[in-house]
Amino acid sequence: MAETDFTMQDEMRRAFAMLSGKWKLEIMWLLNQRIHRFGELRKAIPGITQHMLTAQLRELEADGLITRTVFAEVPPRVDYEMTPKARGLGPTMEALAAWWAVHGGTVPVRPGAGRRKS
């Protein structure tokens, strides 16, 4: 198979890789609601460290899913928002939320899998 011959499985693997990471989907869910500042994201995601949030945001930006806007203010203000490409994931997020509303109550709670305090 030539290097450019991708199967749908290969394409899905690439798509999943863009969104994999412990916090990426939660970040994307929040940014789907509105533009957030770094500190707002940190407060909205209990348990995430500043280092991990920075790393996840950088990866999402590198993949073209979010934009980072720095304002020349003192103190500096940085806003994060979804790109139009990422907005295309909106129906997928809504479908996942609808699925969870129906089936989430049947999913056993795993110890340590809930939201942690920061």
UniProtKB/TrEMBL annotation:
Span of domain HTH hxlR-type: 10-108
Keyword set includes Transcription: yes
SUPFAM superfamilies recorded: Winged helix' DNA-binding domain
Tagged with keyword Transcription regulation: yes
One Pfam family from the record: HxlR
Assigned keywords, A-Z: DNA-binding, Transcription, Transcription regulation
UniProt xrefs under PANTHER family: TRANSCRIPTIONAL REGULATOR, TRANSCRIPTIONAL REGULATOR, MARR FAMILY
Protein name in the entry: Helix-turn-helix transcriptional regulator
Organism: Sphingomonas alpina
